[in-house]
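B., you asked whether I could sanity-check this one before it goes into the benchmark set. Here's the sequence:
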Amino acid sequence: MGAALFLSLSLAALPALAHASSRAEDGLPEGSIAFSRDGDVWAWSAGSTRKLFDGEAATDPRWSPDGTAVLYVMVGDSFSDLVLHSLTDGSDTPLTANMPCFEPGSREYVDSSVWVQDPSWASSGIIAYASEEARPGGRMVMWLLAEPAAAPVQVPGATDGGGIEGISLSADGRWTAYTERGLDPESGPTRVMVGDLTDGSTTLLADDAGGVFDPAISPDAENVVVSIRAAGGVTDLWLIDRQGGDRQQVTQGAQAIGATWSPDGRWLAYLTPDGDRFALWALAITPPAEPGSPRRLGTFDGIDASGGLSWTLATVPEVG
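And here's what the prediction gave me:
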Protein backbone atom coordinates (compact mmCIF):
# COMPACT_ATOMS: atom_id res chain seq x y z
CA MET A 1 0.00 0.00 0.00
CA GLY A 2 1.40 3.43 -0.91
CA ALA A 3 2.06 5.94 1.82
CA ALA A 4 -0.50 8.44 0.48
CA LEU A 5 -3.32 5.85 0.37
CA PHE A 6 -2.23 4.56 3.77
CA LEU A 7 -2.60 8.06 5.23
CA SER A 8 -5.96 8.66 3.54
CA LEU A 9 -7.40 5.55 5.15
CA SER A 10 -5.85 6.37 8.51
CA LEU A 11 -7.16 9.95 8.56
CA ALA A 12 -10.65 8.73 7.75
CA ALA A 13 -10.50 6.47 10.79
CA LEU A 14 -9.16 9.15 13.15
CA PRO A 15 -10.53 8.30 16.60
CA ALA A 16 -12.00 10.75 19.07
CA LEU A 17 -9.73 10.57 22.10
CA ALA A 18 -10.81 11.74 25.52
CA HIS A 19 -7.96 13.00 27.66
CA ALA A 20 -8.27 13.08 31.42
CA SER A 21 -5.69 15.30 33.09
CA SER A 22 -4.90 16.28 36.61
CA ARG A 23 -5.46 19.84 37.77
CA ALA A 24 -2.36 22.02 37.46
CA GLU A 25 -0.88 23.02 40.79
CA ASP A 26 1.01 26.22 41.57
CA GLY A 27 1.04 27.25 37.91
CA LEU A 28 2.74 24.02 36.83
CA PRO A 29 1.66 22.46 33.55
CA GLU A 30 -0.74 19.52 33.52
CA GLY A 31 0.05 16.05 32.32
CA SER A 32 3.11 13.80 32.29
CA ILE A 33 6.39 14.33 30.45
CA ALA A 34 8.40 11.20 29.64
CA PHE A 35 12.17 11.02 29.15
CA SER A 36 14.93 8.44 29.29
CA ARG A 37 17.38 8.46 32.17
CA ASP A 38 20.24 6.01 32.71
CA GLY A 39 18.61 3.65 30.23
CA ASP A 40 15.25 3.62 32.04
CA VAL A 41 12.07 5.55 31.30
CA TRP A 42 10.92 8.25 33.72
CA ALA A 43 8.08 10.75 33.85
CA TRP A 44 7.63 14.17 35.40
CA SER A 45 4.13 15.06 36.64
CA ALA A 46 2.74 17.68 39.05
CA GLY A 47 6.14 18.65 40.42
CA SER A 48 7.60 15.17 41.00
CA THR A 49 9.28 12.43 38.97
CA ARG A 50 8.95 8.67 39.01
CA LYS A 51 10.47 5.77 37.15
CA LEU A 52 7.91 4.23 34.81
CA PHE A 53 9.91 1.09 34.07
CA ASP A 54 13.41 -0.37 33.84
CA GLY A 55 14.62 -0.30 30.27
CA GLU A 56 18.35 -1.04 30.72
CA ALA A 57 19.11 0.55 27.34
CA ALA A 58 15.90 2.46 26.55
CA THR A 59 15.76 5.77 24.73
CA ASP A 60 13.29 7.84 22.66
CA PRO A 61 10.20 7.19 24.86
CA ARG A 62 6.85 8.22 23.31
CA TRP A 63 3.43 8.04 24.98
CA SER A 64 0.63 6.08 23.37
CA PRO A 65 -2.40 8.25 22.51
CA ASP A 66 -4.31 6.94 25.55
CA GLY A 67 -1.35 7.10 27.97
CA THR A 68 -1.45 3.40 28.86
CA ALA A 69 1.74 2.43 27.02
CA VAL A 70 5.13 3.82 26.03
CA LEU A 71 6.86 3.20 22.73
CA TYR A 72 10.63 3.28 23.04
CA VAL A 73 13.86 2.34 21.28
CA MET A 74 15.85 -0.50 22.83
CA VAL A 75 19.54 -0.16 21.97
CA GLY A 76 21.39 -3.44 21.54
CA ASP A 77 24.83 -4.51 20.34
CA SER A 78 25.13 -2.75 16.96
CA PHE A 79 21.35 -2.66 16.42
CA SER A 80 18.20 -1.14 17.89
CA ASP A 81 14.50 -2.06 17.95
CA LEU A 82 11.15 -0.43 18.57
CA VAL A 83 9.48 -1.86 21.67
CA LEU A 84 6.00 -1.21 23.10
CA HIS A 85 5.80 -1.27 26.90
CA SER A 86 2.39 -1.67 28.51
CA LEU A 87 1.96 0.28 31.74
CA THR A 88 -1.06 -1.82 32.69
CA ASP A 89 0.64 -5.23 32.77
CA GLY A 90 4.35 -4.41 32.37
CA SER A 91 4.76 -6.42 29.18
CA ASP A 92 7.16 -5.52 26.35
CA THR A 93 6.20 -6.17 22.73
CA PRO A 94 8.90 -5.75 20.05
CA LEU A 95 7.61 -4.01 16.91
CA THR A 96 10.80 -4.61 14.92
CA ALA A 97 13.28 -7.50 14.91
CA ASN A 98 16.67 -6.07 13.99
CA MET A 99 19.00 -8.22 16.10
CA PRO A 100 21.31 -10.08 13.68
CA CYS A 101 21.11 -13.85 13.76
CA PHE A 102 24.88 -14.26 13.38
CA GLU A 103 27.69 -14.57 15.92
CA PRO A 104 28.21 -11.20 17.67
CA GLY A 105 31.38 -9.55 16.42
CA SER A 106 31.45 -11.51 13.18
CA ARG A 107 31.51 -9.78 9.79
CA GLU A 108 28.09 -11.22 9.03
CA TYR A 109 26.73 -9.77 12.28
CA VAL A 110 28.08 -6.30 11.50
CA ASP A 111 26.90 -6.37 7.88
CA SER A 112 23.34 -7.30 8.90
CA SER A 113 22.97 -4.78 11.75
CA VAL A 114 20.00 -2.41 11.39
CA TRP A 115 19.19 0.68 13.45
CA VAL A 116 15.87 2.32 14.26
CA GLN A 117 15.43 5.69 15.99
CA ASP A 118 13.30 8.76 16.69
CA PRO A 119 9.72 7.45 16.67
CA SER A 120 6.66 9.70 16.77
CA TRP A 121 3.17 8.53 17.77
CA ALA A 122 0.29 10.70 16.55
CA SER A 123 -3.02 11.05 18.39
CA SER A 124 -4.61 9.35 15.36
CA GLY A 125 -2.63 6.19 16.17
CA ILE A 126 -0.11 6.42 13.32
CA ILE A 127 3.53 5.76 14.22
CA ALA A 128 6.49 7.11 12.24
CA TYR A 129 10.14 6.26 12.80
CA ALA A 130 13.51 6.42 11.08
CA SER A 131 15.33 3.29 10.00
CA GLU A 132 17.78 2.27 7.36
CA GLU A 133 16.60 2.14 3.78
CA ALA A 134 15.47 -1.45 3.24
CA ARG A 135 18.98 -2.76 3.93
CA PRO A 136 21.70 -2.55 6.57
CA GLY A 137 24.05 0.37 6.07
CA GLY A 138 21.58 2.38 4.04
CA ARG A 139 20.62 5.95 4.84
CA MET A 140 17.92 6.59 7.40
CA VAL A 141 14.47 7.01 5.86
CA MET A 142 10.95 7.29 7.25
CA TRP A 143 8.64 4.36 7.90
CA LEU A 144 4.99 4.35 8.98
CA LEU A 145 2.84 1.97 11.02
CA ALA A 146 -0.95 2.29 10.91
CA GLU A 147 -0.94 0.76 14.40
CA PRO A 148 1.66 -1.06 16.49
CA ALA A 149 0.85 -4.48 15.01
CA ALA A 150 0.76 -3.28 11.38
CA ALA A 151 3.38 -3.93 8.71
CA PRO A 152 5.70 -0.96 8.10
CA VAL A 153 5.34 1.18 4.99
CA GLN A 154 8.33 3.14 3.71
CA VAL A 155 7.62 6.79 2.88
CA PRO A 156 9.03 7.38 -0.61
CA GLY A 157 11.13 10.46 -1.23
CA ALA A 158 11.28 11.43 2.44
CA THR A 159 14.89 12.57 2.01
CA ASP A 160 17.11 13.86 -0.74
CA GLY A 161 19.96 14.37 1.72
CA GLY A 162 22.15 12.22 3.90
CA GLY A 163 19.34 10.64 5.92
CA ILE A 164 16.71 11.77 8.40
CA GLU A 165 16.20 11.89 12.15
CA GLY A 166 14.08 13.69 14.74
CA ILE A 167 10.67 12.85 13.26
CA SER A 168 7.53 14.65 14.50
CA LEU A 169 3.98 13.85 13.38
CA SER A 170 0.99 16.17 13.56
CA ALA A 171 -1.87 15.01 15.78
CA ASP A 172 -3.92 13.79 12.80
CA GLY A 173 -0.92 12.09 11.20
CA ARG A 174 -1.06 14.11 8.00
CA TRP A 175 1.99 16.33 8.47
CA THR A 176 5.50 15.40 9.44
CA ALA A 177 8.55 17.49 10.27
CA TYR A 178 11.99 15.95 10.40
CA THR A 179 15.68 16.76 10.49
CA GLU A 180 17.57 16.05 7.29
CA ARG A 181 21.32 15.68 7.19
CA GLY A 182 22.72 17.72 4.33
CA LEU A 183 25.03 16.56 1.59
CA ASP A 184 26.10 20.11 0.72
CA PRO A 185 28.37 21.62 3.43
CA GLU A 186 27.34 25.15 2.39
CA SER A 187 23.69 24.49 3.26
CA GLY A 188 24.43 23.80 6.92
CA PRO A 189 24.95 20.50 8.74
CA THR A 190 21.23 19.83 9.24
CA ARG A 191 17.98 21.33 8.03
CA VAL A 192 14.32 20.79 8.82
CA MET A 193 11.79 19.64 6.24
CA VAL A 194 7.99 19.42 6.37
CA GLY A 195 6.14 16.68 4.53
CA ASP A 196 2.50 16.12 3.60
CA LEU A 197 1.95 12.39 3.94
CA THR A 198 -1.29 12.47 1.93
CA ASP A 199 0.47 13.40 -1.32
CA GLY A 200 4.16 12.81 -0.58
CA SER A 201 5.21 16.44 -1.08
CA THR A 202 8.02 17.97 0.99
CA THR A 203 8.96 21.59 1.73
CA LEU A 204 12.07 23.12 3.22
CA LEU A 205 11.22 24.80 6.53
CA ALA A 206 14.62 26.07 7.70
CA ASP A 207 18.28 25.58 6.75
CA ASP A 208 20.29 28.07 8.81
CA ALA A 209 24.06 27.77 8.44
CA GLY A 210 24.66 26.64 12.02
CA GLY A 211 22.14 23.83 11.78
CA VAL A 212 18.43 23.36 12.48
CA PHE A 213 17.16 20.26 14.29
CA ASP A 214 14.69 18.72 16.78
CA PRO A 215 11.44 19.82 15.10
CA ALA A 216 8.10 19.41 16.89
CA ILE A 217 4.78 20.16 15.18
CA SER A 218 2.17 22.03 17.22
CA PRO A 219 -1.07 20.14 17.94
CA ASP A 220 -2.97 22.34 15.45
CA ALA A 221 -0.21 21.77 12.86
CA GLU A 222 0.14 25.52 12.28
CA ASN A 223 3.62 25.92 13.77
CA VAL A 224 6.83 23.95 14.16
CA VAL A 225 9.23 24.58 17.02
CA VAL A 226 12.88 23.88 16.17
CA SER A 227 16.32 24.27 17.70
CA ILE A 228 18.56 26.63 15.71
CA ARG A 229 22.29 26.86 16.38
CA ALA A 230 23.45 30.43 15.80
CA ALA A 231 26.90 31.93 15.39
CA GLY A 232 29.01 31.19 18.45
CA GLY A 233 27.32 27.83 18.98
CA VAL A 234 24.33 29.10 21.01
CA THR A 235 21.19 27.04 20.40
CA ASP A 236 17.70 28.43 20.97
CA LEU A 237 14.12 27.47 20.26
CA TRP A 238 12.33 29.20 17.41
CA LEU A 239 8.70 28.96 16.37
CA ILE A 240 8.22 28.78 12.59
CA ASP A 241 4.89 29.10 10.81
CA ARG A 242 4.46 25.88 8.84
CA GLN A 243 2.88 27.57 5.82
CA GLY A 244 4.33 31.07 5.75
CA GLY A 245 7.73 30.56 7.33
CA ASP A 246 7.43 33.51 9.75
CA ARG A 247 9.70 33.09 12.78
CA GLN A 248 9.49 33.93 16.46
CA GLN A 249 12.37 33.36 18.87
CA VAL A 250 11.19 31.50 21.96
CA THR A 251 14.31 31.26 24.17
CA GLN A 252 17.33 33.51 24.58
CA GLY A 253 20.80 32.00 24.95
CA ALA A 254 19.36 28.86 26.54
CA GLN A 255 21.12 26.05 24.63
CA ALA A 256 17.63 24.55 24.34
CA ILE A 257 17.05 21.19 22.65
CA GLY A 258 14.54 18.35 22.44
CA ALA A 259 11.35 20.44 22.59
CA THR A 260 7.89 18.89 22.70
CA TRP A 261 4.37 20.37 22.87
CA SER A 262 1.72 19.71 25.45
CA PRO A 263 -1.19 18.06 23.58
CA ASP A 264 -3.39 21.12 24.17
CA GLY A 265 -0.78 23.38 22.55
CA ARG A 266 -0.45 25.63 25.60
CA TRP A 267 3.08 24.66 26.68
CA LEU A 268 6.48 23.68 25.38
CA ALA A 269 8.85 21.45 27.33
CA TYR A 270 12.55 21.33 26.52
CA LEU A 271 15.98 20.48 27.90
CA THR A 272 19.07 22.60 28.60
CA PRO A 273 22.52 21.47 29.78
CA ASP A 274 23.38 22.21 33.42
CA GLY A 275 26.94 21.11 34.06
CA ASP A 276 26.99 17.35 33.57
CA ARG A 277 23.20 17.18 34.00
CA PHE A 278 20.17 18.44 32.10
CA ALA A 279 17.40 20.75 33.26
CA LEU A 280 13.79 20.17 32.21
CA TRP A 281 11.82 23.35 31.47
CA ALA A 282 8.25 24.26 30.57
CA LEU A 283 7.22 27.45 28.81
CA ALA A 284 3.66 28.72 28.40
CA ILE A 285 3.10 29.69 24.78
CA THR A 286 0.13 30.87 22.72
CA PRO A 287 1.28 31.97 19.25
CA PRO A 288 1.55 34.66 18.05
CA ALA A 289 1.69 36.21 21.57
CA GLU A 290 5.06 36.45 23.27
CA PRO A 291 5.90 33.34 25.32
CA GLY A 292 5.76 33.50 29.10
CA SER A 293 8.62 32.98 31.53
CA PRO A 294 10.11 29.47 31.54
CA ARG A 295 9.53 27.24 34.56
CA ARG A 296 12.32 24.89 35.66
CA LEU A 297 10.67 21.55 36.38
CA GLY A 298 13.79 19.84 37.62
CA THR A 299 17.46 19.07 37.01
CA PHE A 300 18.50 15.46 36.55
CA ASP A 301 21.60 13.41 35.93
CA GLY A 302 21.67 10.59 33.42
CA ILE A 303 19.14 12.12 30.99
CA ASP A 304 19.55 11.00 27.38
CA ALA A 305 18.88 14.38 25.75
CA SER A 306 19.08 12.91 22.24
CA GLY A 307 16.06 10.76 23.11
CA GLY A 308 13.85 13.83 23.47
CA LEU A 309 10.65 14.30 25.45
CA SER A 310 7.04 13.20 25.11
CA TRP A 311 3.95 14.75 26.75
CA THR A 312 0.53 13.27 27.51
CA LEU A 313 -2.58 14.69 29.18
CA ALA A 314 -4.12 11.24 29.46
CA THR A 315 -4.45 9.48 32.80
CA VAL A 316 -1.31 7.36 33.23
CA PRO A 317 -1.70 4.04 35.09
CA GLU A 318 0.01 3.77 38.45
CA VAL A 319 3.07 1.54 38.23
CA GLY A 320 4.73 -0.34 41.03
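One thing to flag: Helices lie at 3-12, 107-111. Otherwise nothing jumped out at me.
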